Amino acid sequence: MRRRFFFFLAAFFVFGIPGALAGSASDPGITPTTIHIGGTTPLTGSAQAFSSVAKGAAAYLKYVNARGGVNGRKVDYEYLDDQYTPSETVRQTRILVQDKHVFAIFNTLGTETNEAIRPYLNELGVPHLFAASGATTFGRDYKQYPWTIAYQPTYIAEGAMYGNYIRRTLPSAKIAILYQDDSYGNDLIKGLQRGLASKAGNIVSKVGYAATDDNVQSQVAKLKGSRATVLMLFSTPKFTIQAYQYVNQLGWKPKIFVNAVSSASNVMVISSSRGQNKRVEGSISVVFLKDPNDPKWNRDPGVLLYRKIMRKYARGENVKDVYNLYGMSAAFTLVDALKHAGKSPTRRSVMTAALRLNERNNPFLLPRMSIRTTATEHYPIDQARLQRWHNGKWISFGGLLKARPS
Questions:
Q1: What 8-state DSSP symbol labels residue 364?
Q2: Which of 220, 237, 277, 360 places its Cα 20 to 30 Å from the Cα of 345?
Q3: How are beta strands 383-390 and 393-402 bridged, if at all?
Q4: CB 256 within 8 A of CB 280
């Protein structure tokens, strides 16, 4: 018996603990009372409007902790500023994993930023949970990156919704596109072309911008020169707001479609210069979350819960900022996965739980929407509705649409 013990001890030091891909009770970030989760978000820089995605998630997790946490553990969510710059995302994520020893990375925002950290996290077997991006690669390429999963509907599916709608209702439209020149913008264009089908030739101009650009004034001027009657804004809030302003200044009057990334009602109010910019009226987008600014949700239990959490756990933050609610929705699903990971969660067990979701009670999603994943289905949210901006608020129309990339 004694010889067996010393043989095991020697093997332990020679070969180390079981590999990360196997998961173990000694996985980093887990104590008897806490689960340490990390992520990055742009607290500064061109995309700092999205910082509330992390702040909303943090507020929801504080609410959960005040009610006993998850299976007796409090969730310690730490997010660092990556300035929406992939190299900084990599640096800060390494700090979270190697220095702060987090259990998982959660809710990191952005397409290129998540693409930058995905190989590193998958090599180490660190769960890369519910990335705040709709890039199709995060659901499609799960065999290569089994530790990664995103959250929101894919950009290809969203673009296809716009294309289908334009093909049916504006078949003769000439279409111009302002897009962020990365996987995010290019996925939306692919989806638009797919939805347009035989009308894809109606796209007469595409002009990209870099996330590090100061403005998109020249891009909008070039697009106007195409004489397009429809303008697609596949851009983040800063550049979407600018685009609306430049379109108005140029006297251009296209029908505008704005991607979900920038369609939060608080962004639209700014874009409209509080009703003075008439180019915003009639804009079309997609929606999958309840809007706390819409009076129709005033008595909805999910929105009431959102307001309660914001008052108590996010004091000083803007309750009208819909990105806070998005963060809460993602945090609700994180908690769901952690609950199903078991009383002694491992990195492996939480990843398994994230791929067995059947969530029908997320209070922040639109009614009748569910979150479902399987070992081969890595798109948690695959439904959305179209909506039109009218008199200072979004009005949904039509039923729930399937938001699948293919």
A1: T
A2: 360
A3: antiparallel
A4: yes
Q: What is the DSSP string of 102-169?
A: -SEEE--B-HHHHHHHHHHHHHHT--EEEEB---THHHHTTTT-TTEEE-SPPHHHHHHHHHHHHHHH
pLDDT tens track for 354-401:
999 999 999 999 999 999 999 999 999 999 999 999 999 999 999 988
What are 30's two structure tokens? 């887990």
Please check whether residue 250 is in contact with residue 217, taking contact to mean a CB–CB distance below 8 angstroms.
Answer: no
The 8-class DSSP code of residue 16 comes to: -
Residue indicated by tokens 């399987």: 374
The C-alpha R_g of the chain, in whole angstroms, comes to 22
Tens digits of residue pLDDT in 216-235: 999 999 999 999 999 999 99
Sheet with 74-81, strands from edge to edge, namely: 74-81, 34-41, 104-106, 128-131, 148-150
Side-chain half-sphere CA neighbours of 218 within 13 A: 5
Return the axis-axis angle of helices 155-169 and 183-196, rounded to nearest 10°. 30
Answering whether pTM is above 0.85, one says yes
Bridge partner list, 180? 209
Instruction: Give me the long-range contacts of 267-275 (CB less than 8 A, separation at least 24).
Output: 267/49, 267/237, 267/240, 267/241, 268/389, 268/394, 269/392, 270/241, 271/240, 271/241, 271/244, 271/245, 272/244, 272/392, 273/245, 275/392
The Cα–Cα gap between 374 and 391 comes to 41
Please report how many Cα atoms fall inside a 13 Å half-sphere around the Cα of residue 149, on the Cβ side.
30
Interatomic CA distance for residues 372 and 403, integer angstroms? 13
**Tokens encoding 94:** 């390494």
Does the structure show a pLDDT above 80 at 16?
no
- Other C-beta atoms lying within 10 Å of the C-beta of residue 102: 24
Tell me which DSSP letter residue 202 carries: G
